[in-house]
Amino acid sequence: MSAMQQQLGSAPNWGEPKIAVIDDRKRKRMQSNRESAKRSRIRKQQHLDDLLSKAAQLQKENGQIAERIDKTTELYIKIASDNNVLNAQIVELTDRLQSLNSVLQIVEEVNGLAVDIPEMPMICWNHGNSPALCR
User: Per residue in 56-66, is it b (16+ CB within 10 Å) or e — as a string?
Assistant: First the structure.
């Protein structure tokens, strides 16, 4: 120690107030960072909760849509089957009517009687290969 320092008892510490201010700033910044991190974690958790809720809602809606698709598919299959039966009946009845008209023409020719023979409806086959009356 120098003589001067011995006289004063100790060296004056001019840096202590600066260190205290820096320590105080550092402490406040660390506290602020902790609070900011906590808010960030809370926001992140809330966002995750919102996403999980939305995912559950979408899964529920997806299940409902799948049910509706299944029911609609079943209905379509039933209607297609009924339509096939009706188409087969159209073909069968048209053949019967042609046969009956042929019999009436023979009776008309043999007996010489005028018989009212109904016109055959024109059957057209649409693109789905199902018969329909032509217009």
Answer: eeeeeeeeeee
Residues comprising the chain, all counted: 135
Q: Which H or E run contains 125?
A: strand 123-125
The per-residue pLDDT for range 20-72, each reduced to its tens digit, is 778 888 999 999 999 999 999 999 999 999 999 999 999 999 999 999 999 99
CA distance 27 to 125: 88
Instruction: Give the tokens for residue 88.
Output: 């087969």
Rounded CA-CA distance 128/135 in Å is 17
Q: Tell me the pTM.
A: 0.56
